[in-house]
């Protein structure tokens, strides 16, 4: 059976949830295999992650390694991934390559598509096996106005998938074989080196891009995100913000949800004091369940919401927070 390569996202030695989601999708399409980017010094630590990948169905873990690979930008990772694809092609073929729809993931995928002369589909919210075993994707287009199904017709299908597009489900027990793939980076890949990294301030909340619950605040907060944060903490959610809120300086731009911010697809999205302009809807419309809280009963967000509360968020959210805490004991 041809392999479905999943590019792992690993932060500080911890595998991110999106990787397990992609492995769950990969099991629908073929034999899951994982690609981990590393350098020789970190190869042993990367190999130690194999049991975690195997738990979600991976039979092979490719260690795409090159000297100082993680100290350069995405060109080196695209070259390393191309080398893994070549290795996997010789071991039975590649049915598809799945990558998370992050800014880096989409750039890697684009560069790989040029190298392999293959088709690329970005921002898929679902991937299923189609006729002849070819993956068929679903994308949300024109701010949720259309659902588009598509498939790659040339080369190895390259697909980037939005976080939370699938529920990560463990597979039957098994083990994964670790296969090192050593790459020599080109001069172009080594042209720029990362010289400094700064850790983000820890909030204790899940990452916005992969959170299963997101609570966002907008213009209706008036700059006071305290009730939004309190409710988010009560339900274990990430905190987002509309463009109006971040442009006003009320919340960091890194938390913006929208067409020009982050595009999220959680199981539950709670929009607090957000009118529902097209720019914001483009970033959250693929959420599985949407709850809107707004004083304006005519706000466009209610057209998109599964459940709506017409009311002042400063009255609604504290009550909801109290009820959640009481329910959780």
Would you summarize the structure shown here?
The protein has 329 residues and is of the alpha/beta class. Helix content is 29%, strand content 26%. The chain folds into 2 domains: 3-182, 3-Layer(aba) Sandwich (Rossmann fold); 213-328, Rossmann fold, CATH 3.40.50.
3D architecture notes:
The chain has 329 residues and is an alpha/beta fold. The protein folds into two domains: 180 residues, 3-Layer(aba) Sandwich (Rossmann fold); 116 residues, TPP-binding domain (Rossmann fold, 3-Layer(aba) Sandwich), CATH 3.40.50. Helix content is 29%, strand content 26%. It has ten helices and 16 strands. The strands form three sheets. Strands 9-8-7-10-6-1-4-5-11 form a nine-stranded mixed beta sheet. β14, α8 and β15 form a beta-alpha-beta unit. The longest helix is centred in the first third of the chain and has 17 residues. The radius of gyration is 21 Å and the shape is globular. The chain starts with a strand and ends with a helix. The mean pLDDT is 93.
